[in-house]
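Side project, low priority. Logging it here so it doesn't get lost.
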Amino acid sequence: MLVIILVLATAMAAAWFSLLAMAKKEDWAAAAYNRVLDNLILIDKLRAKYEKRRKKFSGYSGHLGFAAALLKLSGNGEKKIAALEGKNRLLQKGNLRHLGIFDIPGYVLVRKFEIIGKGNIHKAVFSSNFELYGKKHAENKTLQLLAKIFSYPVIGVALALVLGACVIGFGKIEAGMAISGFGAALVLASVYAIYDELGDRVKKRRESIVRQFPGMASKLALLVTSGMIMEKAWKETARSQNLELYKEMQKTSEELDNLVRPEEAYGEFIRRCNTKETAKLAAAIIQNLSKGNAEISGLLKTIAKEAWLERRHNAKREAEKASSKLMIPTMLLFLAILAIIMVPVVMNLTVL
């Protein structure tokens, strides 16, 4: 058994290192590009986080304690952002010191085998990444995720098998087998979690867009009804907030400013948001591009009204789900109270 485990671990490790040795410049460049993109996304999140904290403490600027806390938060944030920007500059200059090697064999696999790079998994991942990152970065983020889910299991399972083999070598066969099996299962579960997390992020993003849609549609309808042309009303509405839906509207507005055809710009908006509400709105705008505000204002009012009604219905459904979920802890609490009351009674009867 020990020999079989060692042979299997050696074969997997050898395959992983062979793929690493076959990595070309384009594989390292793709990995570096994705790391730079990840750092930029993290920088944006940090800036938003610390800006929110600054606004929170701005009302207490007259108190030294709160001012000191504000300065500390700001300083820590700037240091983290500066460190990430420094790493990005090094990566962009070709310095790969901050680039990990664990997913590089995955890049090689995706490049060499078309069934991986163009298969059903690729299509599903690309569709999700298109919503999260847009057309510009979707392909690169898809490549990054595929590289991870095909590279991590090989080296991870190999390490789990080696660890189990070491324990078996000390005479603890059952413990070694358990470590090998549990370690391999843990690695595979972790890799699946990476894949599944993408779907969760897309789902939460769609839910956020649906929640934000009624307010956005009402603003847009109000501006168009007041006489503002659609393109300007869209831009003003997009700039009013910095939430997911409004960010997507900002991207569409930038595309229109760059002379992208309106049909194409609004079509990309539909693909990025991927909800029935945004699809209905964008389709109505596309169909009425040549008709001016005469008909679109009425359509926008109807869409906004329907969106608010749908939001109320969703709120009621969520409330019903929450109340049904509360039944289980309520029943458990009732049984606990019943046990507290009945146990002493039963004990007294037994004594008598």
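Brief comment: The mean pLDDT is 84.
Revisit when time allows.
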